[in-house]
């Protein structure tokens, strides 16, 4: 009896020790510990270039100016600041390269507790790395316009990525962008005044929860694009607050013309799912995104040749989409920038056409959930009403519109309709 | 007691033996390459290696070190490049059909960068070394920066910006901040699938006859015992010479140019793998070649345009736009180019214009 109590106590002690070790990035686990202060930029750049495996670098409070920084082909690295409001890395004098901080081929990379700002390209790009943690990082551009770089936090071709407690602002593409990655978590982050707050692209097994995406052109995107290294899908999106994303689209690439990418996102978009499959969106607050709360679109909506690009890594038709138990509300009118934007104009037209076809709607807003209506029937020549398992369980009225984008070019045939019954979850 | 004694002397013996062995190897290889068997450390100064005899800047190689050229080279700000290979004594390179040739352990590839100044003098800037470490069989990179006096180049890892005034081949004058890459920049271009590899010395890019010479470069190597396993020359792939309009079509020259200048990153497993734009000479998939392919992560680098290449319409092609820029975030390649290569831009422009327009 006494023995078992001792064992239990010992066990508790061990658990206690273990959990205390895992709560915060712990510099003690690194064999080389370096520390720098502002003014030592040249030494820091050199330290990054000559890193050995298992090194932590502490950047003490203050402002640092860098051209760019890079880490390549080492393992178990921690870049630690003293907090986003204390350690600030400024890349505005960048003269070469696509990004502020570039990380390539690293197993075990953590960056924690600082602000990085104003690079010419992306702010933090992490390429082909495994076990990546980006935490307590603010990645911002002072100006939210097309002179800002592309992505603020940009892991791509990675495995096991955690992005948490971060803030991004001013990206001319996505604030947080996870691309061609397997297994990613984005949580407790904020993103504002980006073209896209957060984007999960060709990324599988992702969870996005407890975030706030607001005042972007589009709050949150899940895209699959053709011709890339892997297919995305299996994405869970819950407990997020995605609100007031009505900002103008300032992407340099094709605000008015491009077929792909975020330049295509209409101002006023809450969530956009493009050509991606196996997605669950539940228990989010999606408020005052005044063009569309949730858009489900196929690759055909933006690329008439999408069918030619089908392969194991790409299917243009979204399928297995579950949308339920979200709190959704829209404002009284489209945001002004939507009228100037190509897709925005289509959505404005959709609202008008709908109200023309269904006079009983009495000039209501476009419904919350916009489905482009392009299904796998166009590939199979089938006639099923919901062949791709789109399932919606959202209370309220004016929830859904099938925008019938296949016929949008022929006004007399164009019949968006609000019949949600084929799409009700069973 | 006795046991301890025995063990001790055994230890002493083995240590002495290995030290002697190492010394022996050092002596042997020092004359040749400066690599000691078992581990490799980069030396502090270029002269420490003994690659060149006489005045260092004359780049006059000692016996056993040989010069080579590429049919289509990478553009680096109109830099003059001198390339050499150092092989360990008695060893030869093995022919491979695809990718870089198979170099023996302890090989060193030397690439020297210089420019022509306003007084038409050749001025050394940097020397890059690629070394195949015999210990782990992996290639390693290092940079050496030349001093003002042009007497020595010293190990340099952090990269540098050097203001220079240079002349191109036509005598046109440029002022620029030449970018010496840092060691991670070197790795970015040389890494494929997580492994650092040489880029230039592929059979197909060495398979030509240098101006003023009678015999094909690869055949010369075989004759000197530097290369083994070379099949009949007619069976060896040949990368077109990008400037040779007489022997190669516009398409061939443009694709060779893109291969050399872009495909070390724009290849599966390369640094730009995520873009889906692959510009290897062998690539045949029109999407991967950028034909009406939308950019994936170009951001502002796309310049407001929709497609990497719009066949027939160079002025709407992102690829050309990025080649024709020196702005960070837009300029391609991202590294080691601060001047627009106007001849290269012209070639690619002509090629895109020649492609049949499509809807």
Automatic annotation (TrEMBL), chain A:
**Domain Right handed beta helix as annotated: residue spans:** 98-222
**Does the keyword Signal belong to this entry?**
yes
Q: Which InterPro entries match?
A: Beta_helix, PbH1, Pectin_lyas_fold, Pectin_lyase_fold/virulence, SO_2930-like_dom
Q: Pfam families this protein is in?
A: Beta_helix (PF13229)
* Signal peptide region: 1-25
Q: Which SMART domains does UniProt cross-reference here? A: PbH1
Q: Does the keyword Signal apply?
A: yes
Q: Which UniProt keywords apply?
A: Signal
Q: Which NCBIfam families does the UniProt record give? A: beta_helix_1 (TIGR03805)
Name this protein carries in UniProt = Right handed beta helix domain-containing protein
Q: Which organism is it from?
A: Pedobacter steynii
UniProtKB/TrEMBL annotation, chain B:
Q: Its Gene Ontology molecular function terms? A: electron transfer activity; heme binding; metal ion binding
Please tell me whether the keyword Heme is annotated for this protein. Answer: yes
The signal peptide stretch is 1-21
Q: Which UniProt keywords apply?
A: Heme, Iron, Metal-binding, Signal
Domain (Cytochrome c): residue spans on this chain: 166-356
Q: What is this protein called?
A: Cytochrome c domain-containing protein
Q: Which organism is this entry from? A: Pedobacter steynii
